[in-house]
Specification:
Strands 2, 4, 5, 6, 9, 10 and 11 form a 7-stranded mixed sheet that branches. A 4-stranded antiparallel sheet has the order 1-3-8-7, with no helix packed on it. Strand 7 and strand 8 (77-82) form a beta hairpin. The protein is mainly β. It has one helix at 101-106, and strands spanning 3-7, 10-13, 18-25, 33-39, 45-51, 57-59, 67-72, 77-82, 91-98, 112-113, 117-122.
Protein backbone atom coordinates (compact mmCIF):
# COMPACT_ATOMS: atom_id res chain seq x y z
CA UNK A 1 0.00 0.00 0.00
CA UNK A 2 1.01 3.57 -0.66
CA UNK A 3 -0.04 6.50 1.50
CA UNK A 4 0.00 9.99 0.01
CA UNK A 5 0.00 13.21 2.01
CA UNK A 6 -0.37 16.57 0.28
CA UNK A 7 0.75 19.91 1.68
CA UNK A 8 1.16 23.50 0.56
CA UNK A 9 -2.41 24.51 -0.15
CA UNK A 10 -3.85 27.78 1.07
CA UNK A 11 -5.24 31.17 0.12
CA UNK A 12 -3.50 33.28 -2.51
CA UNK A 13 -4.40 36.33 -4.57
CA UNK A 14 -4.88 36.29 -8.32
CA UNK A 15 -1.50 36.23 -10.01
CA UNK A 16 0.21 34.67 -7.03
CA UNK A 17 2.05 31.38 -6.68
CA UNK A 18 1.85 28.27 -4.56
CA UNK A 19 3.85 25.07 -4.43
CA UNK A 20 2.13 21.84 -3.54
CA UNK A 21 4.02 18.82 -2.29
CA UNK A 22 2.96 15.21 -2.01
CA UNK A 23 4.99 12.71 -0.04
CA UNK A 24 4.49 9.00 -0.60
CA UNK A 25 5.13 6.37 2.04
CA UNK A 26 4.65 2.66 2.41
CA UNK A 27 6.82 1.68 -0.53
CA UNK A 28 9.03 3.36 -3.06
CA UNK A 29 7.17 4.90 -5.98
CA UNK A 30 10.31 5.44 -8.05
CA UNK A 31 8.90 3.41 -10.94
CA UNK A 32 5.40 4.86 -10.76
CA UNK A 33 3.84 7.84 -12.45
CA UNK A 34 2.94 10.61 -10.01
CA UNK A 35 0.62 13.50 -10.59
CA UNK A 36 -2.25 15.75 -9.68
CA UNK A 37 -5.96 16.10 -10.21
CA UNK A 38 -8.29 18.78 -8.92
CA UNK A 39 -11.97 19.21 -8.18
CA UNK A 40 -13.45 22.69 -8.22
CA UNK A 41 -16.68 23.43 -6.33
CA UNK A 42 -19.64 21.98 -8.23
CA UNK A 43 -17.47 20.47 -10.95
CA UNK A 44 -16.10 17.08 -11.84
CA UNK A 45 -12.57 15.98 -11.07
CA UNK A 46 -10.07 17.30 -13.63
CA UNK A 47 -6.62 16.08 -14.65
CA UNK A 48 -3.89 18.63 -13.91
CA UNK A 49 -0.55 17.00 -14.64
CA UNK A 50 1.57 13.87 -14.47
CA UNK A 51 5.25 12.98 -14.40
CA UNK A 52 6.71 9.57 -15.09
CA UNK A 53 9.74 7.93 -13.48
CA UNK A 54 12.08 9.45 -16.09
CA UNK A 55 10.76 12.99 -15.77
CA UNK A 56 8.44 13.08 -18.75
CA UNK A 57 5.54 15.42 -18.02
CA UNK A 58 2.12 16.21 -19.39
CA UNK A 59 -0.10 19.02 -18.15
CA UNK A 60 -3.64 19.93 -19.06
CA UNK A 61 -4.23 22.78 -21.48
CA UNK A 62 -5.84 24.83 -18.73
CA UNK A 63 -2.63 24.98 -16.69
CA UNK A 64 0.05 24.51 -19.34
CA UNK A 65 2.61 27.29 -19.16
CA UNK A 66 1.58 28.25 -15.63
CA UNK A 67 1.99 25.03 -13.64
CA UNK A 68 5.10 22.85 -13.50
CA UNK A 69 5.23 19.33 -12.14
CA UNK A 70 8.43 17.76 -10.83
CA UNK A 71 9.52 14.94 -8.57
CA UNK A 72 12.30 13.87 -6.24
CA UNK A 73 12.61 10.10 -6.36
CA UNK A 74 14.97 10.01 -3.40
CA UNK A 75 12.27 11.66 -1.29
CA UNK A 76 9.34 9.81 -2.86
CA UNK A 77 7.81 13.22 -3.45
CA UNK A 78 6.03 15.01 -6.30
CA UNK A 79 5.61 18.77 -6.55
CA UNK A 80 3.24 21.11 -8.34
CA UNK A 81 4.52 24.64 -8.80
CA UNK A 82 1.58 26.88 -9.59
CA UNK A 83 2.22 30.36 -10.96
CA UNK A 84 -0.04 33.09 -12.32
CA UNK A 85 -2.94 31.65 -10.37
CA UNK A 86 -6.48 32.51 -11.38
CA UNK A 87 -9.76 32.31 -9.44
CA UNK A 88 -10.76 29.38 -11.67
CA UNK A 89 -7.82 27.43 -10.24
CA UNK A 90 -9.66 27.30 -6.90
CA UNK A 91 -10.13 23.63 -6.10
CA UNK A 92 -9.14 20.74 -3.91
CA UNK A 93 -5.95 19.34 -5.38
CA UNK A 94 -5.39 15.60 -5.12
CA UNK A 95 -2.10 13.80 -5.45
CA UNK A 96 -2.17 10.46 -7.25
CA UNK A 97 0.19 7.60 -7.97
CA UNK A 98 -0.29 4.92 -10.59
CA UNK A 99 1.73 2.29 -12.38
CA UNK A 100 0.51 3.58 -15.75
CA UNK A 101 1.17 7.08 -17.05
CA UNK A 102 -1.78 6.70 -19.38
CA UNK A 103 -4.22 6.20 -16.51
CA UNK A 104 -3.68 9.85 -15.63
CA UNK A 105 -4.46 10.92 -19.19
CA UNK A 106 -7.58 8.77 -19.27
CA UNK A 107 -8.65 9.94 -15.84
CA UNK A 108 -9.48 6.59 -14.33
CA UNK A 109 -7.88 3.47 -12.92
CA UNK A 110 -5.63 5.40 -10.52
CA UNK A 111 -4.01 3.13 -7.95
CA UNK A 112 -3.55 5.52 -5.03
CA UNK A 113 -5.01 8.87 -3.98
CA UNK A 114 -4.20 11.46 -1.38
CA UNK A 115 -6.89 13.16 0.68
CA UNK A 116 -6.44 16.51 -1.01
CA UNK A 117 -5.36 20.02 -0.17
CA UNK A 118 -7.47 23.12 -0.75
CA UNK A 119 -6.23 25.94 -2.94
CA UNK A 120 -8.25 29.14 -2.95
CA UNK A 121 -7.44 31.97 -5.33
CA UNK A 122 -9.09 35.27 -4.47
CA UNK A 123 -9.95 37.83 -7.11
Amino acid sequence: QVQLVESGGGLVQTGGSLRLSCAASGRTVRDYAMGWFRRAPGKEREFVGVINWAGRTTCSDSVNGRFTISRDNALNTVYLQMNSLKPEDTAVYYCAVDALYTDFLRGYGIDYWGKGTLVTVSS
